[in-house]
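subagent[fold] <- orchestrator: predict structure for attached chain, return tokens only, no commentary.
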Amino acid sequence: MKEKNKILLMSIAFLGCFYLPVELLPFRNPFFESLALVRWYAREHVLLCLIPAFFIAGAISVFVSQASVIKYFGANANKFLAYTVASVSGTILAVCSCTVLPLFSGIYKRGAGLGPATAFLYSGPAINVLAIIMTARILGWELGLARAVGAVFFSVLIGLMMHLIFIKEERVRKTEGDLVAGIVKESRTLFQNAVYFASMVGFLVFANWARPQSQDSGLWAYIFAVKWYLALGFIGITGIMLFKWFSKDEIKDWTQSAWTFAKQIMPLLLFGVLIAGFLLGRPDQEGLIPSWMIAKAVGGNSLLANFFAAIVGAFMYFATLTEVPILQGLIGAGMGKGPALALLLAGPALSLPSMLVIRGVLGTKKTVAYVSLVIIMATISGIIFGAR
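subagent[fold] -> orchestrator:
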């Protein structure tokens, strides 16, 4: 199939999901929840989250040389610098588990080590400053602090363990990276590339800035009030830099690379969202698994309760910031504070849709290892926190 036809088909599919008339359906069941979640996802996360992320990933693939990625995130890179940058990236990005995928795929395919790449994959959605502040304000400062500390620690530990588990394969990638490191000459300075990527990330962050829970006049409310001026300003800066610093061929390669990421990732995400909606429903709406069963299973602080909370969090899809009100309802229904932390550490960083995409990038074995590490560590953290 020609690329133009693929673009047309994907556009039609997106518009079909965006305008899906679910309210006209005569039934209310898990199938309805599945379709409703797909429409909600198309309206809330594709245009302002995923599409900008695809363009950022495409820019990483085209404008950042493989030698540069290997230098800062490869096997020979300074470990402290690589893991530090990867582990705190979520404080800047504030993205969900699906939006981070194109960015992760971009740096990994350019030669980033498995350890820093998976640390970035976890930290992107997990270490969200807004979500952590919201957690502290609504659910208590102890849970907010535990979430912040646990997420930073997790990202580094998961990255290191993934590196050690697959160290033989990493050594092969290191050898291949040594062959290309230093060969590619940068067409722009490091400062120019940094400003260019910062402008795109700026648009991604402010275009998705969520409305504060309280209607006060604090900093978060002010930023929300002017977010579109900020987002459009970053778009304008990006356009100026493209005109001044990039050739037509480079821009063409950039858009083609972004499209490559889109056609690889979007179908998997659509399938994953359909399944997640069918099984777990939407916030305040039940899927095949009733919410009372979940609330009953995560009461107390037993090993089973924490493990179940981590499992449910890992497979359920949480948009940025939505995990807090969902958890508030579960705590009100009797959820223990240990399982609450387990869900907070596993949920935002994983989802069934993201697992399908990660498998396409890393393969089944590495994906199973990554998901298992997140669930196991979230369970242990929940038990420790709940025992206090």
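orchestrator: received. Logging for downstream: The CA atoms of residues 143 and 195 lie 35 Å apart. Residues 35-386 form one domain.
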